[in-house]
Specification:
The complex is a heterodimer of chains A (120) and B (160). Chain A is of the alpha/beta class and 120 residues long. Chain A has 5 helices and 5 strands; from the N terminus they run βαβαβαβαβα. Chain A has a single domain, classed as Response regulator (Rossmann fold). In chain A, helix 1 links the parallel strand 1 and strand 2. Chain B contains 3 helices and 9 strands, in the order E-E-H-E-E-E-H-H-E-E-E-E. In chain B, strands 3, 4, 5, 6, 7, 8 and 9 form a 7-stranded antiparallel sheet that branches. A two-stranded antiparallel sheet of chain B has the order 1-2. The two termini of chain B are 24 Å apart. Chain A: It comes from Cellulomonas chengniuliangii.
Chain lengths: 120, 160
């Protein structure tokens, strides 16, 4: 079973992401982190198969988390789930090593669209 | 609605109230209700909010301002239940309301930011009875109805 780490300071949003993953047909094992620092610690402790992260979080933002992970040698597949989907943000995400960026509001379909290629 | 031009590092972007409305409708349709008819423009006299709750995000950078949502506290509770997939009479605690209502402001604000500015920061969402006053001008105030209850989306440009 695949393991996913969801990083978002909003518990509501984490629940929505989990719900949407299930709706998309992904019955994965889920770990949650309320900020970038906690997410980094969680990956170090037990690297998941995928990280889904918000951009804006206290302690450490999502982009900082991704850069820290890559700098530490983790090549964990990483995607953003964020309230901004501007071209500039997508570019920054891509340059930092993210595989995708899902803009909120999202649907189960938009999850499948970006996650399926990662699983392949 | 008049379009307001916002100069952003030499690049002009028009920012239209109808785009804000569109964002609000999309957010509600995706996150809260499947039925798009639940969020519409308010018709008739707009009531004063007796027990208001405000959720907002501040934007800084090449454009500085705020995107705020205002509604009755009870409406914010119902909104949170809808977001969390709870039954209409299920109790929802204040922490969850602030989280849920704040998240709606976060998503609306993030989408407005994508329209507006090329560089800048979206602050973390906050929820309180009222946001601290910010000197500036209201660009758009959308008086809407969510399931028949008053709901306002306000976009303010900070004074320079």
């Amino acid at each position: 079973m695949l393991r996913v780490l969801i990083a978002d300071d909003s518990r509501v949003m984490r629940q929505i992401v989990i719900r949407t993953l299930r709706q998309a047909g992904y019955d994965w094992s889920v770990t949650e982190a309320p900020d970038g620092a906690a997410a980094l610690a969680a990956v170090r402790a037990d690297e998941p198969d995928l990280v889904l992260s918000d951009w804006n979080m206290p302690e450490m933002t999502g982009i900082e988390l991704l850069r820290e992970l890559r700098a530490a040698g983790f090549s964990t597949p990483f995607g953003f789930v964020t309230s901004e989907g501007s071209p500039e943000m997508r570019q920054a995400a891509e340059e930092a090593g993210a595989l995708f960026l899902i803009a909120k509001p999202f649907t189960a379909e938009s999850f499948r669209d970006v996650i399926e290629p990662v699983l392949a | 609605m008049t379009a307001v031009r916002v100069a952003t590092e030499g690049v002009r972007r028009t920012f239209d109230g109808s785009q804000v409305q569109s964002i609000a409708e999309q957010v509600f349709a995706a996150m809260i209700d499947d039925d798009p008819s639940t969020l519409v423009l308010w018709s008739g006299a707009f009531p004063e909010l007796a027990d208001p709750l405000e959720a907002w995000v501040d934007l800084t950078g090449s454009w500085t301002g705020r995107v705020a949502l205002n509604t009755e506290r009870a409406t914010a509770h119902d909104l949170s239940r809808a977001l969390l997939g709870m039954a209409p009479d299920e109790p929802v605690d204040d922490g969850d309301v602030m989280d849920a209502f704040g998240e709606v402001a976060n998503v609306v604000g993030g989408n407005v930011k994508s329209l507006l500015t090329e560089v800048g920061d979206l602050g973390l969402p906050q929820v309180a009875q009222a946001a601290p006053p910010m000197a500036g001008s209201v660009l758009h105030e959308l008086r809407m109805s969510w399931r028949g209850r008053p709901f306002v989306v306000v976009v303010t440009a900070a004074a320079e």
